[in-house]
Design brief:
The protein is of the alpha/beta class. It contains ten helices and ten strands. Helix 7 packs across helix 8.
Protein backbone atom coordinates (compact mmCIF):
# COMPACT_ATOMS: atom_id res chain seq x y z
CA UNK A 1 0.00 0.00 0.00
CA UNK A 2 1.33 3.45 -0.93
CA UNK A 3 2.22 5.46 2.13
CA UNK A 4 1.03 8.98 2.77
CA UNK A 5 3.51 11.67 1.67
CA UNK A 6 5.27 13.12 4.69
CA UNK A 7 7.05 16.13 3.26
CA UNK A 8 7.16 18.54 0.37
CA UNK A 9 10.30 16.87 -0.92
CA UNK A 10 8.43 13.73 -1.95
CA UNK A 11 6.78 15.36 -4.98
CA UNK A 12 8.75 15.89 -8.15
CA UNK A 13 10.61 12.62 -8.70
CA UNK A 14 9.32 10.75 -11.76
CA UNK A 15 6.72 11.68 -14.42
CA UNK A 16 4.18 14.43 -14.01
CA UNK A 17 0.75 13.35 -12.83
CA UNK A 18 -2.60 14.86 -13.84
CA UNK A 19 -6.00 13.89 -12.49
CA UNK A 20 -9.70 14.24 -13.20
CA UNK A 21 -11.84 13.94 -10.08
CA UNK A 22 -15.64 13.96 -10.60
CA UNK A 23 -18.30 13.34 -7.95
CA UNK A 24 -20.87 10.58 -8.57
CA UNK A 25 -23.83 12.71 -7.53
CA UNK A 26 -25.27 13.22 -10.99
CA UNK A 27 -24.50 12.75 -14.69
CA UNK A 28 -21.57 14.56 -16.30
CA UNK A 29 -22.21 17.59 -18.52
CA UNK A 30 -20.08 19.30 -21.19
CA UNK A 31 -18.16 21.26 -18.56
CA UNK A 32 -16.93 17.99 -17.11
CA UNK A 33 -16.10 16.76 -20.61
CA UNK A 34 -13.99 19.84 -21.30
CA UNK A 35 -12.00 19.47 -18.08
CA UNK A 36 -11.50 15.73 -18.54
CA UNK A 37 -10.36 16.18 -22.14
CA UNK A 38 -7.91 18.93 -21.16
CA UNK A 39 -6.38 16.73 -18.47
CA UNK A 40 -6.17 13.79 -20.87
CA UNK A 41 -4.51 15.85 -23.60
CA UNK A 42 -2.13 17.55 -21.17
CA UNK A 43 -1.00 14.14 -19.96
CA UNK A 44 -0.54 12.97 -23.57
CA UNK A 45 1.47 15.94 -24.80
CA UNK A 46 3.73 15.99 -21.73
CA UNK A 47 4.20 12.22 -21.52
CA UNK A 48 2.57 12.19 -18.09
CA UNK A 49 0.25 9.94 -16.11
CA UNK A 50 -3.51 10.54 -15.85
CA UNK A 51 -5.50 9.44 -12.82
CA UNK A 52 -9.25 9.23 -12.36
CA UNK A 53 -10.46 9.78 -8.80
CA UNK A 54 -14.06 9.32 -7.65
CA UNK A 55 -14.89 12.00 -5.10
CA UNK A 56 -17.67 10.17 -3.27
CA UNK A 57 -16.96 11.48 0.21
CA UNK A 58 -20.60 12.55 0.64
CA UNK A 59 -22.20 9.13 0.90
CA UNK A 60 -25.68 10.64 1.18
CA UNK A 61 -25.45 11.95 -2.41
CA UNK A 62 -23.13 9.47 -4.13
CA UNK A 63 -24.84 6.79 -6.25
CA UNK A 64 -23.37 3.66 -7.84
CA UNK A 65 -25.26 4.33 -11.07
CA UNK A 66 -23.66 7.75 -11.39
CA UNK A 67 -20.18 6.27 -10.88
CA UNK A 68 -20.90 3.72 -13.61
CA UNK A 69 -22.10 6.55 -15.85
CA UNK A 70 -18.82 8.43 -15.29
CA UNK A 71 -16.85 5.49 -16.69
CA UNK A 72 -19.27 5.12 -19.61
CA UNK A 73 -19.25 8.82 -20.53
CA UNK A 74 -15.47 9.20 -20.29
CA UNK A 75 -15.01 6.01 -22.29
CA UNK A 76 -17.36 7.33 -24.97
CA UNK A 77 -15.21 10.48 -25.14
CA UNK A 78 -12.23 8.23 -25.89
CA UNK A 79 -10.42 8.80 -22.60
CA UNK A 80 -8.26 6.29 -20.73
CA UNK A 81 -6.80 6.40 -17.24
CA UNK A 82 -4.75 4.35 -14.83
CA UNK A 83 -6.30 1.55 -12.82
CA UNK A 84 -7.32 1.03 -10.12
CA UNK A 85 -9.49 4.10 -9.64
CA UNK A 86 -9.30 5.56 -6.12
CA UNK A 87 -12.48 6.49 -4.24
CA UNK A 88 -12.59 9.02 -1.45
CA UNK A 89 -14.94 6.74 0.49
CA UNK A 90 -11.88 4.49 1.00
CA UNK A 91 -9.84 7.32 2.51
CA UNK A 92 -11.67 8.34 5.68
CA UNK A 93 -8.78 7.30 7.95
CA UNK A 94 -6.42 9.58 6.02
CA UNK A 95 -8.74 12.55 6.51
CA UNK A 96 -9.02 11.83 10.22
CA UNK A 97 -5.21 11.77 10.45
CA UNK A 98 -4.97 15.16 8.73
CA UNK A 99 -7.59 16.63 11.06
CA UNK A 100 -5.70 15.23 14.05
CA UNK A 101 -2.51 16.90 12.82
CA UNK A 102 -4.25 20.26 12.56
CA UNK A 103 -5.83 19.74 15.97
CA UNK A 104 -2.40 19.09 17.50
CA UNK A 105 -1.37 22.48 16.13
CA UNK A 106 -4.31 24.03 17.99
CA UNK A 107 -5.97 25.16 14.76
CA UNK A 108 -9.33 23.33 14.87
CA UNK A 109 -12.45 24.08 16.85
CA UNK A 110 -16.05 22.85 16.73
CA UNK A 111 -18.76 25.23 15.57
CA UNK A 112 -22.35 24.46 16.56
CA UNK A 113 -24.13 27.35 14.81
CA UNK A 114 -26.52 26.30 12.06
CA UNK A 115 -26.57 28.07 8.70
CA UNK A 116 -29.76 29.83 9.80
CA UNK A 117 -28.13 31.00 13.02
CA UNK A 118 -25.10 32.26 11.13
CA UNK A 119 -27.37 34.17 8.76
CA UNK A 120 -29.21 35.75 11.69
CA UNK A 121 -25.96 36.73 13.42
CA UNK A 122 -24.60 38.33 10.26
CA UNK A 123 -27.73 40.10 9.05
CA UNK A 124 -25.87 43.39 8.62
CA UNK A 125 -25.93 44.45 4.98
CA UNK A 126 -22.18 45.04 4.95
CA UNK A 127 -21.19 41.71 6.53
CA UNK A 128 -18.45 40.13 4.36
CA UNK A 129 -18.83 37.00 2.26
CA UNK A 130 -16.24 34.48 1.11
CA UNK A 131 -15.22 34.27 -2.58
CA UNK A 132 -18.09 31.84 -3.21
CA UNK A 133 -20.58 34.39 -1.89
CA UNK A 134 -21.30 32.59 1.40
CA UNK A 135 -21.59 34.73 4.52
CA UNK A 136 -18.43 34.50 6.60
CA UNK A 137 -18.79 32.70 9.91
CA UNK A 138 -18.77 35.34 12.70
CA UNK A 139 -16.41 33.47 15.02
CA UNK A 140 -18.84 33.32 17.94
CA UNK A 141 -17.57 29.96 19.22
CA UNK A 142 -13.90 30.39 18.40
CA UNK A 143 -12.85 31.20 21.97
CA UNK A 144 -15.18 28.85 23.82
CA UNK A 145 -13.57 26.83 26.58
CA UNK A 146 -12.82 23.16 26.12
CA UNK A 147 -15.40 22.31 28.79
CA UNK A 148 -18.15 24.22 27.00
CA UNK A 149 -17.34 22.56 23.69
CA UNK A 150 -17.33 19.10 25.23
CA UNK A 151 -20.65 19.80 26.93
CA UNK A 152 -22.26 20.71 23.60
CA UNK A 153 -20.86 17.58 21.97
CA UNK A 154 -22.09 15.44 24.86
CA UNK A 155 -25.59 16.79 24.20
CA UNK A 156 -25.33 15.39 20.67
CA UNK A 157 -25.37 18.80 19.01
CA UNK A 158 -24.43 18.78 15.29
CA UNK A 159 -21.18 20.61 14.64
CA UNK A 160 -18.59 21.48 12.06
CA UNK A 161 -14.84 21.49 12.57
CA UNK A 162 -13.47 24.84 11.47
CA UNK A 163 -9.94 26.02 10.80
CA UNK A 164 -8.97 29.01 12.93
CA UNK A 165 -7.65 30.95 9.95
CA UNK A 166 -6.09 33.79 11.92
CA UNK A 167 -4.03 31.39 14.03
CA UNK A 168 -3.28 29.23 11.00
CA UNK A 169 -1.75 32.16 9.13
CA UNK A 170 0.15 33.48 12.13
CA UNK A 171 3.85 33.12 11.38
CA UNK A 172 3.37 31.78 7.86
CA UNK A 173 5.00 33.59 4.95
CA UNK A 174 2.88 35.12 2.21
CA UNK A 175 1.39 32.22 0.25
CA UNK A 176 1.11 31.87 -3.50
CA UNK A 177 0.81 29.23 -6.21
CA UNK A 178 2.22 28.55 -9.67
CA UNK A 179 -0.30 28.98 -12.51
CA UNK A 180 0.75 27.65 -15.90
CA UNK A 181 -1.03 26.52 -19.06
CA UNK A 182 0.28 22.97 -19.74
CA UNK A 183 -0.05 23.58 -23.49
CA UNK A 184 1.98 26.82 -23.52
CA UNK A 185 5.70 27.45 -23.36
CA UNK A 186 5.54 30.44 -21.03
CA UNK A 187 7.03 30.26 -17.54
CA UNK A 188 4.52 29.78 -14.71
CA UNK A 189 2.92 32.91 -13.30
CA UNK A 190 2.85 33.46 -9.55
CA UNK A 191 -0.60 34.07 -8.06
CA UNK A 192 -0.94 35.52 -4.59
CA UNK A 193 -3.09 33.44 -2.25
CA UNK A 194 -5.58 35.08 0.10
CA UNK A 195 -6.77 32.43 2.58
CA UNK A 196 -8.07 35.06 5.01
CA UNK A 197 -10.82 35.92 2.51
CA UNK A 198 -12.41 32.56 3.34
CA UNK A 199 -12.53 33.09 7.10
CA UNK A 200 -12.71 30.03 9.35
CA UNK A 201 -13.49 27.43 6.69
CA UNK A 202 -15.24 24.17 7.52
CA UNK A 203 -12.91 21.18 7.21
CA UNK A 204 -15.29 18.46 8.42
CA UNK A 205 -18.74 17.94 9.87
CA UNK A 206 -20.10 15.47 12.39
CA UNK A 207 -21.62 13.42 9.56
CA UNK A 208 -18.96 14.20 6.92
CA UNK A 209 -15.33 13.14 7.53
CA UNK A 210 -13.78 15.94 5.47
CA UNK A 211 -14.73 18.94 3.38
CA UNK A 212 -13.77 19.28 -0.26
CA UNK A 213 -10.88 21.55 0.74
CA UNK A 214 -9.27 19.04 3.08
CA UNK A 215 -9.95 15.86 1.13
CA UNK A 216 -8.66 17.18 -2.19
CA UNK A 217 -5.41 18.40 -0.64
CA UNK A 218 -4.79 15.12 1.19
CA UNK A 219 -5.67 12.98 -1.83
CA UNK A 220 -3.62 14.97 -4.35
CA UNK A 221 -0.58 14.57 -2.11
CA UNK A 222 -1.24 10.87 -1.57
CA UNK A 223 -1.53 10.22 -5.30
CA UNK A 224 1.52 12.31 -6.17
CA UNK A 225 -0.47 14.73 -8.36
CA UNK A 226 1.92 17.32 -9.79
CA UNK A 227 -0.44 19.28 -12.06
CA UNK A 228 -4.02 20.27 -11.24
CA UNK A 229 -6.10 21.33 -14.24
CA UNK A 230 -9.59 22.44 -13.19
CA UNK A 231 -12.24 25.10 -13.80
CA UNK A 232 -11.79 28.81 -13.21
CA UNK A 233 -14.57 28.70 -10.61
CA UNK A 234 -12.20 26.75 -8.33
CA UNK A 235 -9.35 29.24 -8.58
CA UNK A 236 -10.28 31.09 -5.35
CA UNK A 237 -10.29 27.77 -3.46
CA UNK A 238 -6.59 27.41 -4.23
CA UNK A 239 -5.89 29.92 -1.45
CA UNK A 240 -7.38 27.52 1.10
CA UNK A 241 -5.56 24.58 -0.44
CA UNK A 242 -2.22 26.35 -0.24
CA UNK A 243 -2.58 27.08 3.48
CA UNK A 244 -3.58 23.47 4.18
CA UNK A 245 -0.67 22.15 2.13
CA UNK A 246 1.68 24.39 4.09
CA UNK A 247 0.29 23.47 7.51
CA UNK A 248 0.34 19.74 6.73
CA UNK A 249 3.77 19.94 5.06
CA UNK A 250 2.40 18.53 1.80
CA UNK A 251 3.83 19.05 -1.69
CA UNK A 252 2.77 22.06 -3.75
CA UNK A 253 1.46 21.08 -7.20
CA UNK A 254 1.22 23.39 -10.16
CA UNK A 255 -2.20 24.71 -11.22
CA UNK A 256 -4.05 25.68 -14.37
CA UNK A 257 -7.60 27.02 -14.07
CA UNK A 258 -9.32 26.75 -17.43
CA UNK A 259 -12.27 28.65 -18.88
CA UNK A 260 -15.78 27.51 -18.01
CA UNK A 261 -18.31 26.08 -20.43
CA UNK A 262 -21.45 28.23 -20.34
CA UNK A 263 -25.05 27.61 -21.32
CA UNK A 264 -27.15 29.76 -23.63
CA UNK A 265 -27.89 32.20 -20.78
CA UNK A 266 -24.21 32.72 -20.01
CA UNK A 267 -24.32 30.71 -16.76
CA UNK A 268 -21.80 27.97 -16.05
CA UNK A 269 -23.03 24.42 -16.48
CA UNK A 270 -23.91 22.70 -13.21
CA UNK A 271 -25.56 19.49 -12.08
CA UNK A 272 -27.56 21.47 -9.52
CA UNK A 273 -29.12 23.53 -12.31
CA UNK A 274 -30.03 20.49 -14.39
CA UNK A 275 -27.60 21.33 -17.19
CA UNK A 276 -27.85 19.06 -20.21
CA UNK A 277 -25.77 15.94 -19.74
CA UNK A 278 -23.26 14.24 -22.02
CA UNK A 279 -25.43 11.14 -22.24
CA UNK A 280 -28.51 13.17 -23.16
CA UNK A 281 -26.65 14.68 -26.09
CA UNK A 282 -25.31 11.27 -27.05
CA UNK A 283 -28.79 9.73 -26.88
CA UNK A 284 -30.04 12.56 -29.10
CA UNK A 285 -27.57 11.45 -31.78
CA UNK A 286 -24.66 13.86 -31.26
CA UNK A 287 -21.33 12.27 -32.15
CA UNK A 288 -18.25 12.34 -29.97
CA UNK A 289 -16.46 14.42 -32.59
CA UNK A 290 -19.27 16.98 -32.74
CA UNK A 291 -19.39 17.34 -28.97
CA UNK A 292 -15.63 17.87 -28.74
CA UNK A 293 -15.68 20.35 -31.61
CA UNK A 294 -18.47 22.24 -29.87
CA UNK A 295 -16.21 22.65 -26.86
CA UNK A 296 -13.65 24.43 -29.01
CA UNK A 297 -11.15 21.59 -28.83
Amino acid sequence: MTKEPTSKAELGAGPRVFRFAPSPNGYLHRGHAYSALLNHRAAEVTGSRLLLRIEDIDLTRARAEFETAIYEDLGWLGLTWEEPVMRQSERFDAYREALAALDRLGLLYPSFMSRREIAAATASSDWPCDPDGTTLYPGVEREWSKARREAEMARGQPYALRLDMTRALDGLPALSWREADPFAQEAPATRAADPAAWGDVVLARKALPASYHLSVVVDDAFQGVTDIVRGLDLQPSTSVHRVLQTLLDLPEPGYFHHRLILDETGAKLAKSRGSETIRARRDAGESREALIAGLGL
